[in-house]
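Entry 14. Ran structure prediction on the chain below.
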Amino acid sequence: MNRWNLIVDVEKCNNCNNCVMAVNDEYVGNDFPGYAAAQPQQGHGWFTIDRHIRGDQPMVDVTYVPRTCNHCDDAPCIKAGGGVVAKRPDGIVVIDPAKAKGRKDVVDSCPYGAIFWNEAQQLPQHWIFDAHLLDDGWIEPRPVQACPTGALISVKISDAAMKAKADDEDLSVLSPELNTKPRVYYRGLGKTQTCFLGGNVSTRTSQGLAENVEGALIELELADRADRIKAESDLYGDFKIDGLAPNAGKFTLRISHPDHGTRDISGELSASQYIGTVEL
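Output, structure tokens:
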């Protein structure tokens, strides 16, 4: 049987918030009996975008990560709900708006923080993957339809095909250690889980002017790695070694160029860091 999945391409998300607005437009003030009660105007984020910032000025990058209900196959909310939360045959998890009255405990059961409490209606609520629209013949949920960059893709395929797709495209899930078997997959989460070490290389001309050094060899030694990580400075003298583990500890950076000599820099890497300009 084919089931719904959501793929989020993190590198394509530019924080336009169209997905957030599409969900709010669909549910705020609108009841869908059997699927969801109306979302409150304030206090709920059924679809949100997290912002991850790395580095120091002037070398900074920002990654945006859309986040919502993961429609897990081994969903803690279903276990806690005792019949008020159900997994549909197509993979979508729905909290019954009639049966779930007063069940605030369902909110706390979600380890992703994707279930919200509607105080006025005394209901736990979440994004239902627009199940009501899909049942009515829509080919994709509204957040996917509203995304202008293609950062959101919905696919309805077999579990075996989805596993193969995830393996082939290096897709991952949030907090895999929870073992909830989410149906929301991410491409490009690396920047939110790793850090970088960057800087600039310069030298002095015979007139005493600062000049960027292109093609300088950058060699990074970390206490927890036996090998050296190598890079080169670009046309502007900049370099960036990415994909490093946070809290990697002490490091030694050797910067060398056949025409300008060698210099060693030492420090400690806890998060993404820009070391500034190193003059050879």
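The first helix runs from residue 18 to 27. Will compare against last week's run tomorrow.
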